[in-house]
Structures are given as structure tokens and as C-alpha cells.
């Protein structure tokens, strides 16, 4: 595995490669969710590139940028064992300069849900993803369905800016107790982690209601709120795959999304129906 830290070096390395490239952008502190993305990229491409970059522009002023978990050495080992060919590990100054052009998230879909609690977050996400995709120029890029809104906005950007990369969505990997894996789970105390299991429970209950014929969004949402009580809920929303409001669940075109704040930790989860 090669470890490369500057965009020019990486572009140079990839310039003469006439093979398919699978790319997985991450912020490190790698877990099984990231590994699932890498595995899929390994299966579907000749070359696998992973980036690890804790992107400052997607954190708001008072957020956890400085304490975001960093496990550089362990991450390098994990990538090597997972068969990654190139690990891109840039520093902030390799990626950002002064007074730069920014990609702006769309007014509605970029500022609802997580975009409402973290205004500007998705502009930072889209900016870094645009930069990374331009550096790597991959055949396919892999993103988790766990970050459903991020996945949707990146797909929109690729479509609207006529980019040629294929975006591949990957199902959420969970711990055996059902909690979605996340680099931020290490912030949780044992008690917070236990309480957080209400999140997958509420989603499973919603799926169960739908499979037994309840499609009224209000009823499903209200049942979920009961289950999540007394957690601090940022939102529970039931939307179509285009992130628009619906009154009734439509099979193969519905996402149920939850965000809960546990202590200082933001926990996202969802289920795609
Ligand atoms: P992050 O390092 O948190 O920025 O995540 C990098 C990529 O991994 C994103 O595309 C995430 O959606 C994806 N990801 C994070 N957690 C999971 C998970 N539990 N299952 C599948 N993909 C995930």
C-alpha cells in the first residue's frame, strides 16, 4: 500500500493507470462500516483508493473538530489489511488555500434535517467531496446509506455538475445489538450507549408497522417518538428518496430518518423502505 499526502503526487501516481478506480473518502477512525465500503470497492475495481481527512469546513464553530477521534497508525494498518492500494492522507493546507471558491449546498435539501441543526455543514461536505473526486478521478465512489442526506446531496451534485463518477450506496453496518457503527460512538458512556439502542428499535418498529399495513406517516412517526422518549430528538422524519415530504409510505421510495443527541454526541440512523 502506498501512502500519499499531496494532491499533485496522487494525481501523478494515478495519471497513467488505465484501470478502474474505486474510491472511499473517510474521516478516519475506521470501523466495520468503512470496511464494508472498502470491501465493495475491492470487489468492483482494479485499484482501491481510500482517503483519510478530517475536513474542517464541514464542522461548525462549536463542534467537535478538535476532539474528533484520530487513529492514524491503526487506520493505516486496517487499510493495508483490507487490500487498499493507495491511502491518501493529506493535511489541511494540502487541500485548502485562502479565499477559495466554495460549493454551496442546495437551499432546501441542504438545510433540512441535519442541515437545519448544522447550517453550512453540507456545503463543507460537498466542497471536500468535489475536491477529492477531482484529485482521484475514480470510476466509482462509495458512500454509506447511514449518512442518507449526504449521499443524496453528493448524488445530486454529481448529476447536476455532469460529473462522470458512479456513486455506489452501501448499506449500514450495525453492531450486534443493532446500533449503527459510527466513529463518534466512542464518545458514548455505557448508559448513553444503552439508551441509544432506542434508535434502531424505533426504526425496526416503524418497518414492522409498514409491513403489517400501516402506511400513515403521522401514526408511524408518533409511535417512533414514543419509543425514543426521553432521548433528545433532533428530528424524526419520513421522506421519499428525493427528500420530499410524504403523507403515506410508498414502498421502495421512502426513508425514515432519525437524529438524536446523546450527551454531546450526534447519532444518525435511518432505514430505507
Ligand atoms: P466518515 O468517516 O464518518 O466520514 O464516513 C465515511 C463513509 O463511511 C461515509 O460514506 C459514511 O456514510 C460511511 N459510513 C459511516 N458509518 C457507516 C456504517 N455504519 N455503515 C456503512 N457505511 C458507513
Describe the structure.
The chain has 273 residues and is α/β, with parallel strands linked by helices. The chain has 10 helices and 9 strands. The strands form 2 sheets. A 6-stranded parallel sheet has the order 1-4-3-2-5-6, sandwiched between helices. A 3-stranded antiparallel sheet has the order 7-8-9, with helices on one face. The radius of gyration is 19 Å and the shape is globular. The structure holds adenosine monophosphate. The site of adenosine monophosphate has 17 residues, from helix 2 and strand 5.
Structure ligands = adenosine monophosphate
| CATH first level of the largest domain | Alpha Beta
The radius of gyration is 19 Å
Q: List the helices and strands in order.
A: EHEHEHEHHHEHEHHHEEE
Structural class by helix and strand composition: alpha/beta
Number of domains: 2
Tell me how many strands there are.
Answer: 9
* Helix content percent band: 25-40%
Distance between the termini: 38 Å
Kindly report the CATH topology of the largest domain. Rossmann fold
Strand order within the widest beta sheet = 1-4-3-2-5-6
**Molecular shape:** globular
Main pleated sheet: 6 strands, parallel
Strand content is: 15-25%
Average pLDDT level: 97
Quick one: CATH superfamily of the largest domain?
HUPs
Count of runs of 4 or more consecutive helical residues: 10
Write a brief caption for the model.
The protein has 273 residues and is α/β, with parallel strands linked by helices. The chain contains ten helices and nine strands.
Write out key terms for the chains shown.
three-stranded antiparallel β-sheet; single chain; six-stranded parallel β-sheet; 37% helix; binds adenosine monophosphate; 10 helices; Rossmann fold; alpha/beta; 273 residues; Pantoate--beta-alanine Ligase, Chain: A,domain 2
